[in-house]
Every structure is written in structure tokens, then in C-alpha cells.
Amino acid sequence: MLWDDNWFLERFLFWVPLVLSLTVHEWAHAASAKLLGDDTAQRLGRMTLNPLDHIDPIGTLILPLLGVPFGWAKPVPINPLRFRADVGMATGLLLTAAAGPASNLSLALLAAGSVGACAHLAPGLLPAAALRVIETFTVLNVLLAFFNLLPIPPLDGGRVVDAIIPDSLRPAWDGFAQYSGLALIAVIVLPRLNGIDLFAWPYHWAMRLLQVAQG
Q: Catalytic residue at 10?
């Protein structure tokens, strides 16, 4: 039966870490922008760790709860014109874009560290369900960081490229950006059609991180 207790539990144990991870990711964008002089997100109530303020109905609720193993939150608004003069638009865009994936990597390291600390200092302290959620949280944040760093708009990696690309390559980049949605689908789908899992390396890296942490 599709909606049995085990199915719901599987979705819930994935959905909770996903929502928390996406919330911190968006908060990191907003907080870094505020530090650089742009308080747009703060004024709109988006510089918060309240998940309700970042939830996207489709990307955070419907698709993940239906079994799609990924998701997204509402993007945090950034106004590069409000960055401090000593920062500049390009640097500000780069730093605010990188803040999201950096927050996910930080969360992954913290989660793996907590699993390792419990394994060494208090074996058996964490219930199996809690341990599983933390492990899922670790892997998910590594995958989110990797995915968002792909150099394709509107991902954070695309915003980093947009901030640093030379003027001579700007027309070509702008042309590519017009078809970035198709490019993103191609990058995800085409490798799978050829038997290549784009996320295999970051997944195995995350599992290795958990193994090392647990000794």
C-alpha cells in the first residue's frame, strides 16, 4: 500500500533534514548579504531560521513528500546595488552565492562530527531512528552543496560564474544562461542515460566522512 506507515516514515525521515538544510542554506544567503550591506532579505523577513518563511509549496512540500529525493526553497532576494562600496557588486554576488553551499558543507561536517562524538563518547546513546536522520542530514547536505555549485544558472555555482566571468566571455555566458534550464536537465538526465550517476562521488564522499567520524 502506497500510504502505509513505512512509506510515510521513509518520507518523513528524509523531509525533516531536507527542510532544515534548505532553511539554513537560504538563511546563509540572507545573512551574508546583510553583512555585505544588503538588508533586502532582512527587511522582507527572510533572514530567519524559521522554515515556514522559506518553504516552496512544490520544491519543499509536494515533491519531497511524494518521494522525489530532492527539493528547493524559495530563493532569498539579493540586491547587489545595496552592497557596500568597499565590497562591490561582483564580490558581493560571489560571496552571497557561495554562502549557501558553504553552509551545507558546514552542516554536513557538524552532523558527521556529532555522530562520531556519540560513537566514541556515548555508544548506543542515539536511537536508531535519530542516528539515521543525522546520517541522512549529513549526506543530504553534501549533495546539496555539490548540486548548488554546478556552474549553471540559477544555481549558486552559476551566480559565482556570473560574478567572475570576464567581459570578453559575457555575451557567450548570457546566451548560455537563456537555456540554462535545459542545460540543467541535460546535466542531470544525460549521464544517467549513459549509466553515470552524477551524484555518486559526493554521495560516497559523504559516506566516507561518516565512516571516518565514527572511527
A: no
